[in-house]
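Hi F.,

I've been meaning to write this up properly since the lab meeting, where we talked about keeping a consistent format for the predictions we share between groups. The idea is simple: the sequence comes first, exactly as it goes in, then the structure tokens exactly as they come out, then a line or two of notes. No screenshots and no reformatting. I'm using this chain as the first example so we have something concrete to point to.
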Amino acid sequence: MTEPEEPQPQPRPVREPSLADALIPLVSLAGLIAGSLALFGLDALDGPIQVALILCVLVAALIGMRNGHTWADVERAARAAFTSITSAVLILLAVGALIGVWNLSGTIPTLVYYGIQVLSPSWYYAATALICGVIAMSIGSSWTTAGTIGVGLVGVATMVGVTPAITAGAVISGAYLGDKLSPLSETTVLTAQLVGVDVHAHIKRQAWTSIPAFIIAFVVFLILSLTGAPDVHNPVGEEIELQSLDGIYRITAWNLLPLVLLAFLSIRKVPATLALMASALFAGVLGAFLQADVMRGFVGSDENPVVGSIKGIWLAMANGFEISSGIAEIDQLLSRGGMDSMLLTLWLIIGAVTFGAILEEFGLIARLVDPMIRSARSTGRLFATVFACGFGLNIVAGDQYIALVLPSKVFRVEFAKRGLAPTNLSRLAADSGTVTSALVPWNSCGAFMGAVLGVPTLSYLPYAIFNYASPGLSVLYGITGFRIEKVPPS
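Output, unedited:
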């Protein structure tokens, strides 16, 4: 006689989340990030904000479990989040390696040196925006651009009789243009990866709003330069400490060959990770010949030249480049890079995408956003809704990664249903999340820009023309249908 089988436990019924369920994680996020910024200031990005994100992941997980989900559901959502950023992780590590080697080999110093040669008070604001745009595009970081040459340009502004607040707006406009259009930018890579589009396709579509927005900003800055600057036409490069780069590096156009190689490989559609690593290795070999003194100073003069060069390239890729020139501005600009420099960013991204994945998996974000989507019946209203979410999260959460991750994940399905290509969403998410972050004083980006440039966020805000022209054009395209790509609805 067979024994009766024990009854299997029945899974708990899953309840739909309430409005309070949906609000609690976002309120927790806003509170924890605000607390981390209040306690640690700009150092909050060195770990406290990441911890805040992980705590918010647990808050969202507990709400989901209270509504009937299991811990296995939490783990499944986290695995999906990790899978979605696998390519981004490889690209970001390659970007870190590239920056370290480009500093070692003289590629970035040469770009900076040539850039400051064109400065003159009669076109100071326009030249500032252009120089910062080129440099940010070459290094992929708006923060580094603003924190190095941007600081120098704002400092020189007072000496030559131009306005620091307008100069700061020009610095930020150029820095965010380069940040958006650079394959080295972690926000650009992350946005493309989240939406599921190729990085180069994403950059190409971003150019449709970024370049016109920058032209608008450049024209305004040129008018302000010509009407408000003193009547001086001599270059002012000698006022900037970065002018001393030619005493440290051998400044030559040959140093720009790694940039040319990266551009060529990108045009040839070589996978981003391979293109970045190839350019880094080529720059290292080139630097061994062109920057022998810098290489010896980096690894130690007692090393065999060949072994020392290999060691220098390896260390620059792993831990970044460091220099002690005695000139603070140069040391700050060039002592950076390396794969390990990306680990804090990756930690932040992991926390952000996991939080977004759990909110999406458990229907928490849909509870808030679905009514907005239902009311956005036209493409123009949908674009305005995405912008409102991105900009609103920059205000509420105080961090651009949250403002990028959540709209990118939440609106993917709706864009697919309406037959809108994902490149539309990637461009709009970047315009709404990345660019507007510098306009919010308590956002980590706005706080950083205000602190390093020495100009309050609200003072430079009217002159950060690119940062509201770009999202404005993006929403306008949605309203008019201009440059809106369609796909079969799914």
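Notes:
The mean pLDDT is 84.
Residues 19-61+343-480 form one domain.

If this format works for you, I'll send the rest the same way.

G.
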